[in-house]
Design goal:
Length: about 350
């Protein structure tokens, strides 16, 4: 395997949650270079043979300190190998820390690749490997996937690898190396949700049309909360990212997306998600769409487990207009077998609920 699209002596950061396939992909990628090195961040954790503190839900400060040390060591070692002329793949699990790790790298050029298969794919891979990453009372697949999508900076190349072999993923990285490259002129961006945690005001959010260039981060976002682009509603599958849309953009990048379908007298909200929660982003997107819809009847389909959506829409004037009992069960059987039996809040995932907003 050759890798002409990435310069010798570069550093490529590869991350993703446990069982996403990052070790296999990183090693295969590194072996394709004439002089390649694979730096495994977890090796620095295992070097601590006494006094090690693992990262667990609500970790102690010592565990966080050891994680920061591990990340700093990984970046330093990658830089040393790159300085010696080796093309180096630095592989570890990074969330909000990704921007800091990339900023630590003195090497140029730098590349970032985030492997982001949906949770169902990760769970299946975990079940078929000898190594156990998810243990009782520890993080779940969904915990880490949510953190990856909502806390990790939108930088570099994000890949949904659910339909790929490791070799195909490596080929995609090399083919799309320009997208993975982190520019030198600006500091690495923060994750959009971090701006929400700072409670940015709506004056900091701009709206623009959804474009093909938005697909990598949009696919990662919809994969985390909705299980991928293909969504079942009203007895059919639709590509939720195959429609026109409105992007909400904050100082650090995209923070939300609404896609829609206008059809005669009706206007469907196909998909609405805000990476920045509780910051008014969803409301800004909805208001913009209602204005765009004009005199049309606006409607949206959600499910019985999505209490956040039911609250959001009803507080903004929508009324429940239809309840299709067992519709999700039927879609799971005939349209999309990957729909999980349990949804948000541990609620059985069974029914479709349609809400409408009459023209104002």
């Amino acid at each position: 395997m050759s890798a002409p699209s990435i310069e010798p002596g570069a550093v490529i950061v590869v991350t993703g949650i446990s069982a996403a396939g990052k070790s296999t992909v990183a090693d295969l990628l590194a072996r394709g270079f004439e002089r390649g090195v694979h730096v495994r961040g977890d090796a620095f954790r295992r070097m601590v043979v006494s006094g090690r503190r693992e990262m667990v839900p609500d970790p102690p400060e010592e565990a966080r300190a050891q994680l920061r040390l591990r990340h700093a060591l990984g970046a330093a070692v990658a830089d040393r190998y790159a300085a010696a002329g080796f093309t180096t793949v630095l592989q570890d699990l990074y969330f909000a820390e990704l921007a800091d790790v990339v900023a630590r790298l003195d090497t140029r050029p730098r590349y970032v690749v985030v492997l982001c298969p949906p949770p169902a794919t990760v769970a299946a891979r975990e079940a078929h490997r000898a190594k156990v990453a998810y243990r009782p009372r520890g993080f779940t697949v969904d915990d880490l996937h949510q953190a990856l999508v909502h806390e990790t900076p939108r930088m570099g190349l994000w890949l949904d690898t659910s339909g790929q072999t490791p070799e195909e993923t490596v080929a995609a990285i090399l083919d799309r190396a320009d997208e993975a490259r982190v520019g030198d002129g600006t500091a690495p961006p923060e994750q959009p949700g971090s701006a929400a945690r700072r409670r940015f005001g709506l004056r900091d959010v701009g709206l623009r049309p959804f474009t093909e260039g938005d697909l990598p981060w949009a696919e990662a976002l919809i994969g985390a909360d909705f299980g991928g682009r293909q969504q079942a509603r009203r007895g059919e599958l639709v590509d939720a990212l195959g429609f026109p849309g409105i992007v909400a953009e904050g100082p650090d990048g995209a923070v939300g997306l609404l896609t829609y379908h206008l059809d005669g007298d009706s206007a469907e909200i196909v998909y609405l998600e805000a990476a920045a929660r509780l910051a008014g982003v969803g409301t800004a997107l909805l208001d913009a769409f209602v204005e765009l819809a004009g005199p049309r009847l606006v409607w949206v389909v959600t499910t019985n487990d999505n209490l956040d959506a039911l609250r959001f829409y009803q507080r903004r004037g929508f009324a429940i207009s239809a309840v299709r009992l067992g519709a999700v069960d039927g879609a799971r059987t005939t349209l999309k077998p990957t729909i999980p039996p349990t949804g948000a809040h541990g609620i059985p995932f069974r029914d479709e609920i349609e809400l409408t907003l009459r023209p104002r």
